[in-house]
Design goal:
Aspartate Aminotransferase, domain 1, homodimer, 2 domains, Aspartate Aminotransferase, domain 2, 41% helix, alpha/beta, 7-stranded mixed sheet, 430 residues
Chain lengths: 430, 430
């Protein structure tokens, strides 16, 4: 938006652009239309198709036309509660579940309702801070360090919260793991250490565990196990179920945060009303799980782990530093060690880094700055998802799950991300 | 929500309940579970199934899983532009179309972005004012009169706008016709008179024409024909296509309001992201129209007109005053002429009216107060939609469209609303 004529826009929305993850997707499409060969490591969309059982359920419910209850179809709320019970060993009551058109929308409504400071460890997912800006909310960024695996250090959190005239103000702390943008995750011990601080300050914890089912060894641990009274657990169909475009997210509230759920439901009833009915019926099948979906997940995890490791190995030799992904489908390399050479090429910010990379190699990634890192830090996020997920799943099915994928698998079935990483490594080194 | 313990809620959302139209639906469901016979004249949901051609398209696109562009699937934006061209004779460019998860959500985002006063003629749809409240926006209510058919009187509008120290402040005027809650609509001449005032004050006009295709004689005229430069045209699948539960709404902007479209798309990218992909593909079929959908609409209109007229006739003898519906599926009776008798029964507000009516007759309607009328005005909205729409359509198909429906049609096929009106009339009379 670039309005010179007088317009009547709220200052809080002036100058915001479309969300960078979506914008990069649209920019890649434009470049491709112009005939440029683009290596899309930008948008973080699951490469896999929606499990066929779930698609079948959508077909069978295509005629559903009634407005559903604001908080969600009762069977779906129960299925989500059961899902968290089954996969996270959490006692989430069905009455504590809220269904929304994407967890992004739910996070926005949470910010509409919650009156307090939002504490966001960085690097973080791209939308938390712009949402706060749109609503005029305060955000406290909590930078993490490469050396800590980009994870929240409990002492640093405590220091930030206590170094205030009003340490006990209402606060919402956002956690996200397996993490976008870096694929790292927390151990039980690390979570317990964070919870100790959260409890000391009575924080509300928004735990964005939408990639939980894409923990590569299937060992995701929800922080809700250690802080049940203060955790809002966020999930949805977009990542583990491959249904980003369907738009269905879930929040699970503990009874003690029922006041937030009630307020959000009231605002939901004045905004999105309810999630699309056919989609909700289909989601019941997804959250109920079962052998077919479990197998789908096991194959997806094995493929993503193999590909992530290959991408990591490809980048590692180039001089940048990067952590191994333990879940999701991202790497977050830091080109800091190559700063001198990059500066000599005129590259001093993550934006310049990504623009030049795209121009000179056709590799599209996102700069660390959109994940709320300092603009002079030479980080970037790459998503290794631009391959034919259906074909990769079918190929993976021919190797028993207790065996590793053949060495040639990634090269043959996920050539796009690998080629992108090679180009990035060569370009960075060079 | 009734939080006595200390909670950290924004004051603007404290105390708001779920939207009354949805709440009445849930209350009816509860009463029915208790075995109470409820006559549901509360929720305004289309009684008709989604046209089978459209349901088929959803089935065929159940596998679509990609995130779609924020503003909407290009084919759908084109289909919506073509729809307005075809049905409203408007030159809306496809680039001016924005797809959202319901027009309610789009109106909310419009209020997030637009910085100015919102002028809402009353009685009005239930969500405009609560949305403004949630966002801390100013709303100027413009009460209309029964004698004017609940329509905006241009002189009254002019008087309100000019009686200010700052008559030219940025303002958004909301029009809605065929109207929820009263079924009335505007003629071309009336629209031209309103546009004259709108142009004088450079108002932005949000014209909610979601019932346009349910104008009983198919002669809906969009105000965009007279005020193309300043009109945002709102529509969607919920009413004419019977797909309320699918959640798909549309806004069409003129090029001069591109700055608002851009800002809303940016906010959309940080909130709902895009509308559910399978639903958008299905909506293309709906907006493209064709003979089957046209026939569906003709039958729907004929049924609604016959039923609306019978309901009107049933109420008319009871002493209340009520206008004939010309579109949509609502009547908005005013029981003012019966005020004395009602007061003798302890009924002095529209809320008391509706509560007592539900308790004593099982008829569920909504009080005029939720449509922003004074609480001591004895108005109520009834929706005449609680019948088997599929069966009614099938029966209507046996009578050629150039003939009237048989006298017995409404009695046999839409007994619920008729019985509700009889009970209301008997109860009101005495």
């Amino acid at each position: 938006m670039n309005a010179r004529e007088p317009v009547s826009l709220d200052l809080r929305v002036r100058g915001i652009g479309e969300s960078p993850t979506l914008a990069i997707n649209q920019r890649c499409a434009e470049l491709r239309r112009k005939g440029v060969r683009v290596h899309r490591l930008g948008l973080g969309q699951s490469p896999f198709p929606v499990p066929s059982l779930v698609v079948e359920t959508l077909r069978a419910n295509a005629h559903r036309k009634d407005y559903l209850p604001v908080r969600g179809l009762p069977e779906l709320r129960e299925a989500v509660a059961d899902f968290h019970h089954r996969t996270d060993r959490l006692d989430v009551p069905a009455e504590g579940v809220l269904i929304g058109p994407g967890s992004k929308e739910l996070m926005f409504l949470l910010q509409v309702c919650f009156y307090g400071e939002i504490v966001v460890p960085t690097p973080c997912w791209v939308s938390y801070v712009p949402q706060a800006r749109i609503l005029g909310r305060e955000v406290r960024r909590l930078p993490t360090r490469f050396e800590d695996g980009w994870k929240v250090a409990p002492e640093a959190l405590d220091r930030v919260l206590s170094a205030e005239h009003d340490p006990y103000r209402p606060r919402l702390l956002v956690l996200n793991y397996p993490a976008n943008p870096h694929g790292g995750t927390y151990s039980s011990t690390e979570l317990e250490d964070i919870v100790r601080v959260a409890r000391r300050y009575s924080l509300v914890l928004l735990s964005d565990e939408i990639y939980g089912q894409l923990h590569y060894s299937g060992n995701h641990v929800s922080v809700g196990r250690f802080y049940p009274e203060g955790t809002i657990l966020s999930s949805g169909l977009s990542k583990w179920c491959g249904a980003g475009g369907w738009r269905l997210g879930t929040f699970a509230f503990p009874p003690r945060l029922g006041w937030l759920l009630d307020a959000m439901a009231a605002v939901a009833s004045e905004t999105y009303t309810a999630v699309s009915a056919p989609i909700q019926y289909a989601a019941v099948t997804a959250f109920r799980g079962g052998a077919e979906i479990e197998r789908y997940l096991c194959h997806a995890r094995r493929i993503l782990r193999a590909l992530g490791d290959r991408c990591l190995a490809t980048l590692a030799g180039s001089g940048m530093r990067v952590h191994r992904a333990e879940g999701a489908f991202y790497l977050f390399p830091d080109l800091g060690p190559l700063a001198e050479g990059l500066a000599a090429r005129g590259i001093r910010t993550s934006e310049a880094l990504c623009e030049r990379l795209l121009d000179e190699t056709g590799v599209a990634v996102l700069p660390g700055s959109v994940f709320e890192r300092r603009t002079d830090e030479l980080t970037l996020r790459l998503a290794f998802v631009d391959f034919d997920g259906a074909r990769a799943l079918a190929a993976s099915e021919t190797t028993p799950l207790d065996q590793p994928l053949p060495d040639s698998f990634v090269e043959q079935l996920c050539p796009g991300p690998l080629e992108g990483c090679r180009r990035l490594a060569d370009w960075a080194a060079g």
